[in-house]
Amino acid sequence: MAAAEQDLLEDTIQAVRRRDRRFSRNAYYFVLDALDFTMSNLGREKMTGEDRHVGGRELLAGIKDYAADQFGPMAEVVFARWGVRAPADFGEIVFNLIDAELLSRRPTDSRLDFVDGFDFRTVFAEKHRQSLDRIATR
Q1: What number of other Cβ atoms are within 10 A of residue 97's Cβ?
Q2: CB-based contacts of 60, cutoff 8 Å, min separation 6
Q3: 17-21: long-range pairs with CB below 8 Å, 24+
Q4: What pTM was computed for the model?
Q5: Nearest to 69, CA basis, from 94, 101, 38
Q6: Separation of alpha carbons 83 and 92, rounded Å
Q7: pLDDT values of the chain reduced to their tens digit, one per residue, 138 residues
Q8: Cα torsion at 91, 92, 93, 98 (round to 10°)?
Q9: In 3-state terms, what secondary structure has residue 120?
Q10: Whole-angstrom Cα distance, residue 116 to residue 88?
């Protein structure tokens, strides 16, 4: 990303945070990175228009996997530090980014897509256990 684009993104996220102080700027950047991660995993990064769209449930699954990769068992702690306490908070972040015109939405997209997505503690503890199991069997 060019410096001017990065500055514009930072300015936009700062404006979003002036309207909604619940979440840190890192949470917004994380969601954008998790979206790129999800699109890549779904093979949509080179698509255009509606074919490129990632729904809330798909994004939430990508957030879970990306967080596990990035933070391992500390993901829940990182999220809490950012003000993210439940998957529904990611819906709030996404819709703040939509309102700021950094993301787009379909008419069927809803904040409800992020409700009851997964339990942070359970998911990240299980992913950590799986990692330890893989290491132990090598």
Answers
A1: 20
A2: 87, 90, 113, 114, 117, 118
A3: 19/96, 20/92, 20/96
A4: 0.86
A5: 38
A6: 11
A7: 688 888 999 999 999 999 999 999 999 999 999 999 999 998 877 766 666 789 999 999 999 999 988 998 889 999 999 999 999 999 999 999 999 999 999 999 999 999 987 787 787 778 777 777 778 887
A8: 90
A9: helix
A10: 7
The answer to whether 66 and 36 are in contact (CB under 8 A) is: no
**Which amino acid type is present at position 127?**
K
- DSSP labels, 13-47: HHHHHHH-TTS-HHHHHHHHHHHHHHHHHTT-TT-
Q: How many residues does the chain have?
A: 138
